[in-house]
Amino acid sequence: MIRVLSYILWSPILILFALYLVHVGDDIIAFFLNNLDLYKWFIAGFVIMSMVEILYKKSFSLLKGLTHEFAHTLVSWMFFRHVDSFHTNDDESGTVYHRNGWIGDIFISLAPYCFPYITYLIMALSLLGAEENLEVFKFMVGVSFGFHVTTGLDQTFRYQTDTHKRPLLMAQPILSVDWGC
Question: Which of 37, 42, 111, 160 has a CA positioned 20 to 30 A from the CA of residue 69?
Fold first, then answer.
């Protein structure tokens, strides 16, 4: 019943958002084309990683599960939780057990979809790198973000306890905004 209600409430919003993206999509594409020299390494890394991940999906299953559960762990630490255990399986499943409070539960649950921590880490490392290596860092940021997007899309459209143990009316708006922005 809640799922049907969620679809009824969010369908018009998502349709309007899709129409807005169609309206501004040409502006976004024009922006990237006008600044292609600035973004070419990021785009190359993103496209290459997306294609590799799609072609070799099974090879990435342990890595996907590991990065997914580690995102939960990182955000748990950000909310000062005590992480008792961290476990992953070959089939991308896993669990993180944490305790000490309830504040931030929704953010901890949705962290793998909204928090590209590997991309942020590479961006931080690029600040320490030399100017002549900037293209390498841009490519690595594109690769890591491509991995985050393809993994997030793959895991969002499968049954995940992360998105289903929280009320769908709470999880869906956050995921909609995250994937839309």
Answer: 42
